[in-house]
Amino acid sequence: MRSLLRPFARLAAEPPFRLCVRAAYHFLPVSVRTRARWDVAPRPHYLVGTLFAADQAKLERVSAISVVEFGVAGGQGLLTLQREAAAVERETGISIQVFGFDSGSGLPEFIGDYRDFPDVWQAGWYKFDDASVRAKLDPRTTLVIGDVRDTVPRFLAEHNPPPIGFVAVDLDLYSSTAAALQLLSCPNRRMLKHVPVYLDDIILDRTHRFGGELLAVDEFNERNDGVKIDLWRGLPVHRPFRDAGWLLQMWMAHDLAAIGRIAQGREPI
Q1: Cα separation of 31 and 88, whole Å?
Q2: What are the tens digits of pLDDT across the range 40-54?
């Protein structure tokens, strides 16, 4: 039966039929995996990243993971991540804790040189809506407020979170992003072997790889041998909306040190 339905499944994923199928899925009680494949989500990158993390946790025999958003601002992203974490947890059985990092005061008063794109961003933008956001959080979600240069190392030292499974970076600036990526490079880091990383501000007209989040990633890779961040190479394959813009913003952090220990027989697959 499955082989008989395969041609229809391929047809459903082609324009213009894919638009009709996705519209129908918005009103049907479909699974989390179906929603993730068909972009049936307010922020499909959050759902896809969290679902991959849960599946990776199962492969590594890990029962709980952390998903992180850097740059909470008005809170819509964090609340979406919270909802998707709950949905993925129900479907996969992997316990998921959510963490939101924000300075609490918007973009800093001092925006640096060209690397921070001072022609794009302005001090004070995207202030954190504290009372509104906190009122909508459930117990799975924790806010970490302060400068990420300080809060990331302290978070790893004091919270002892489950392994990081997905990271969304929406800090706009090169300097802030470079500090946030400490989460994946600290000696006491806890992460899955493959961690999706969403980079929000890399497809704007005035951004480039000599500044912003892309420069932060390039320098991260230059400084760190144990973990490398690359494009999520296989993500667009077999997706109905493989031309969606957000796919260009999905990267993957690979813990090469842990993978190397597997090859040496010092760590299970």
Answers
A1: 10
A2: 999 999 999 999 999
Instruction: Record the tokens describing residue 150, joined without a space.
Output: 């300080």
| Same domain, residue pair 76 and 150 | yes
Torsion from C-alpha of 87, 89, 92, 95, nearest 10 degrees: 170
In contact, 106 and 124? CB cutoff 8 Å: yes
Element (H, E) at 214: helix 212-223
Asked, for residue 12, whether it belongs to a domain, the answer is yes
Give the CATH number for residue 153: 3.40.50.150
Do 191 and 227 fall into the same domain? yes
CA 227 – CA 220 distance, rounded (Å): 9
Residues 6+ apart with CB under 8 A from 105: 124, 127, 128
User: How far apart are alpha carbons 95 and 137 in whole angstroms?
Assistant: 17
Contacts of 241-249 with CB under 8 Å at 24 or more apart are 241/18, 241/22, 241/38, 241/39, 244/39, 244/44, 245/203, 246/44, 246/45, 246/198, 248/202, 248/203, 249/45, 249/198, 249/199, 249/200, 249/202, 249/203
269, part of any domain: no
Give the residue numbers spanning the domain of 175: 42-263
Residues of the chain with pLDDT under 50: none
Task: Give the number of domains in the chain.
Answer: 2
Per-residue pLDDT reduced to its tens digit, 174-187:
899 999 999 999 88
Instruction: Look up the pTM and report it.
Output: 0.91
